[in-house]
Design brief:
Two copies of one chain form a homodimer. Chain A is mainly α. Chain A is built from six helices and two strands, in the order ααααββαα. The mean pLDDT of chain A is about 95. Chain B binds a DNA duplex through helix 4.
Chain lengths: ~140, ~140
DNA sequence: TCCGTATAAATGCAACTGCATGTATTTAGT
DNA sequence: ACTAAATACATGCAGTTGCATTTATACGGA
């Protein structure tokens, strides 16, 4: 299947992917919000920053999170206002910033994860058995390759 | 797998689903936008309206498209401003509206579909062979059940 | 019939996103 | 070294979304 037109099956898969986005991603987001937590985008940024111990440049976050430049800029702003990250000028590039996670940011990650984990289980894990989950993960990997 | 915590595999599947949302859905949206077409949400509304020949109530669109009430209200407004749909009061419910697709709306659907189809193929169909596409469609169906 | 409650849809306001542009700094060509 | 082009990031503005509230109509019980 690599012709110019998608098969009927591909279209089915497409519509279900769209719906899964609304139901599963939307569901997890809603669970987090209902518990008073910030959106997943905050979590994603903080997680990347915790992984990269040395801090990250905004443009690195941009490519890792597949976000537009201006969105990264403002997302970082919001996180900085809430003292979850800290910005400092880059030593070797006067145009650049280095963004680091703060202790409050680490704490938020720690507090969010148990609920996030449960939300993933509720909206995804509980719908598929282990072999199916594995199959789905593999297929999505191919899709993203 | 129905315990309280998701398996590592479930988490893998989750992160890939998130990424697929950005890459695949984002990719298709971008293709349409690049061709000067309105967002997919417009297409979705028009498609539902064309299927339901008699027109639909906003609340019916709401449940079919899994959108929030206020978003449907404004989405319809925008479509109506562009003469793609028409609103008229419901005969048997004074609170209600009936939304119908116009000829211009049908025309937009016809003009968008070839490109939409190609975008689906590009971002999904071409990444998976026929059996894998079928498997993905089945797994997503389970996920949505 | 009248009244309280539920439902359908719209809307004011704040937050967020996209797009284009602006500002500062680095890099490359001469 | 000097200037043009590229890069990193920020920002003004318009469009979109979420949330709470409002308006209008329908319904159900006394």
């Amino acid at each position: 299947m690599s012709g110019a037109d998608p098969s009927e099956t591909a279209i089915k898969a497409w519509t279900r992917l769209v719906r899964a986005q609304v139901m599963v991603l939307g569901g997890v987001e809603a669970d987090l919000k209902a518990a008073g937590f910030p959106p997943l985008s905050w979590y994603d940024v903080l997680l990347e920053l915790r992984r990269a111990e040395r801090g990250l440049r905004p443009m690195e976050l941009e490519s890792r999170l597949l976000l537009a430049q201006h969105n990264v800029s403002r997302l970082i702003d919001r996180l900085a206002v809430n003292r979850l990250v800290r910005k400092r000028p880059s030593a070797n590039d006067g145009r650049g910033q280095i963004v680091e996670i703060t202790e409050a940011g680490r704490d938020l990650l720690r507090r969010m994860w148990p609920l996030y984990r449960r939300a993933i289980q509720r909206h995804m894990g509980s719908k598929l058995d282990a072999p199916d989950t594995d199959r789905l993960a593999r297929l999505l990997k191919k899709l993203l390759a």
